[in-house]
Amino acid sequence: MNPLAELETPVLLLDEARMDRNIARMQSRMDALGVRFRPHAKTSKCPAVVQRQLAAGARGITVSTLKEAERFFAAGVQDILYAVAIVPGKFDHALRLCRQGLQLTLLVESVAAAQQLSQFGAAHGQVFDVLIEVDTDGHRSGIAPGDPLLLDIAAALQGGARCKGVMTHAGSSYDLRTPEALQAMAEQERAGCVAAAQGLRAAGHACEVVSVGSTPTALSARDLAGVTEVRAGVYVFFDLVMAGVGVCTPGDIALSVLCTVIGHRPEAGWVITDGGWMAMSRDRGTARQDHDHGYGLVCDADGAPIAGLRFDSANQEHGVLQWTGYDSLPLAERFPLGAQLRIVPNHACATGAQHPAYVVLPAAGGSAPLQRWERFSGW
Amino acid sequence: MNPLAELETPVLLLDEARMDRNIARMQSRMDALGVRFRPHAKTSKCPAVVQRQLAAGARGITVSTLKEAERFFAAGVQDILYAVAIVPGKFDHALRLCRQGLQLTLLVESVAAAQQLSQFGAAHGQVFDVLIEVDTDGHRSGIAPGDPLLLDIAAALQGGARCKGVMTHAGSSYDLRTPEALQAMAEQERAGCVAAAQGLRAAGHACEVVSVGSTPTALSARDLAGVTEVRAGVYVFFDLVMAGVGVCTPGDIALSVLCTVIGHRPEAGWVITDGGWMAMSRDRGTARQDHDHGYGLVCDADGAPIAGLRFDSANQEHGVLQWTGYDSLPLAERFPLGAQLRIVPNHACATGAQHPAYVVLPAAGGSAPLQRWERFSGW
Asked: How large a percentage of chain B has pLDDT more than 70?
């Protein structure tokens, strides 16, 4: 008996063997490059997944919200980097977590934030560990490596805060497609962040942490001289966007959404499922890549891609799949009512966030009961 | 003291006065047209919101998942239409709800589903109330009004199921822009569904329910002769897509996401916030309308739109707003670190689904403590 047949769909499936392989691949690269690895837990939001990453050798984690910090600390993680620039409205929350014993590192990218955090810390008897955000690719926030503002920010971190180091994220690596371009971006990320650290050290700041990373650059870097730690998130599951970037194959992707055929529109060649955008998210991240997968890659219940069935359109709880293949069978016999399909997502972080839990496909296959790993959401 | 200033962002805000006005507007239209109104609860997924709709005169609700049916039944709603075609994998769940006393109506659009449901009901001593899905605009699923398949499906509903009526949803109304086109679509939806009912009655089926609706057609119909009930969901909050369709103004939109300025990139004209796609969803529903609002309409903390500040790009927990205005103030003084902004969403259903609760802005303003209304998610 196929255990998936008993599930009420849509359901988020996690292929444990693929996840374990992805974790091992990244950790062994980081070990070989001689850097500490601090995975980004925003992808899974799941303590069971993070435990696997830590067991494989990760040291500390990265989070994108203080709720993630709170939940993972409650699950036993002691060392957490909150890698989004902090603002005064979140100081109280950060202070509570520090007082509970969490080794929390914060991020700033302005003199104003550094001053306010330092004053807040001093007023509350706390010295916050802080990284300064460095911009190495112009894609979002941070201070350019040569900008004198870096020194001003470091100088403002005194009293209730201390400058622990620098951090960058080469998010524009997601737009690249070739190993050469990815290697060049990884080197740009490394060199920029190390240069920022050297500038700070020359001005008398200890700057012990030099933190870089994104999944594409982490998997492409040839050398990480001067870097102390690397961060990456989506590698744990991978997704179609990462396959388009070229750092994984579709066969590495550990997530899929199990859905059910609920109708047909034979004259249009449409197969209707109960997996709509609520189950997939509205993320269309492959739309600007060479291969646009629509709302995801359509596979059969065993996970084998179905050539000619495209996920073109989605409503809240309806997927509309377009059959473009040739088949002598009528559509309703080729994909009968009640048949299950699996959709591989464009973006693991976005699709995961739509679901309350992962149903874990056991590594060994076979007849073990399916496990359910809860994930959390919100702020 | 502004009570919003105390909130840790991002947070989903609900303007209670606007919601109440939207509810009253729709209910009074339905009352004037002489039809029963059955709001679609997939938009709010919140018992407190649905209670307002019922108190205003709605009779029963519509849902898009059996989890919604279960939760709203637990909250006291007795009469629920599950308006997505049912498949065998969900029969058990539906049966459990019926046995608990819920007056549940199901939907089918194939002979296969009708037969299987009838057999399942007969085998379990249950007679399910069933509507047949009618297609009046070709946008998704359902049977065309004149298709003889309608009679076959109705005939297959016997024993453990009975044909209670017909249902259609003119989802293509979302693509329209003018009152004339919307009125024509509302009439097409009405006429097609009534014709389907008449065909079934002529063949001896009672077909007491003729259910139509979408927010745009419900607000545009001039006459609903032959229709017994109307369904609509997003009207309760409205959103930028509905404003683009022309059935509301931005001033009617009851939802917004409160976020905080966390950084700047002055040379690029960027204001960085802590409201990214996790807080807004990836829904870009206005992209194909006359006015593309990016990831949402940027307003100040009081809800007044800020001309020249566009929400062009989003990462998971970062919004990147592009300043295109002219101002003698530097960007970091115009939108200082820690300042709050409110983002009006493209699509209320999608943005709402990213949040665990609504923070309710009281109708009277003033100093009453902010209420928090929980919403649920998942399947």
From this structure: 98
* Cα–Cα dist B72/B74, whole Å: 5
Looking at beta carbons, which residues of chain A come within 8 Å of B349?
A: 316
- Rounded CA-CA distance A182/A246 in Å is 9
Q: Which of 2.40.37.20, 3.40.50.10860, 2.40.420.20, 3.40.50.2300 would CATH assign to domain A3-11+248-374?
A: 2.40.37.20
Superfamily (CATH) of domain A17-236: Alanine racemase (3.20.20.10)
Is B208 strand, coil or helix?
Answer: coil
pLDDT in tens, B235-263: 999 999 999 999 999 999 999 999 999 99
Contact A110 B84 (CB under 8 A): no
CB contact under 8 Å between B89 and A260, yes or no, is yes
CB burial of B125-155 (b: ≥16 within 10 Å; e: otherwise) equals ebebbbbbbbbbbebbbbbebeeeebbebbb
Query: Considering only residues 156 to 185 of chain A, which have any Cβ-Cβ distance to chain B shorter than 8 Å?
Result: 171
Quick one: pLDDT at residue A110?
A: 97
Return the CATH class of domain B16-237.
Answer: alpha beta
The reply to whether the predicted model has a pTM over 0.95 is: yes
Q: Dihedral angle at the C-alpha atoms of A73, A79, A85, A86, nearest 10 degrees? A: 60
Longest dimension (CA), chain B: 76
Q: What contacts A332, CB < 8 A, 6 or more positions away?
A: A264, A266, B110, B112
Chain B nearest-CA distance from A141, in A, is 7
According to DSSP, the β-strands at A103-108 and A128-134 are parallel
What pLDDT digit, counting tens, does each position of A292-308 carry? 999 999 999 999 999 99
Domain coordinates of chain A in residue numbers?
A: 3-11+248-374, 17-236
A149 shares contact with chain B (CB less than 8 Å): no
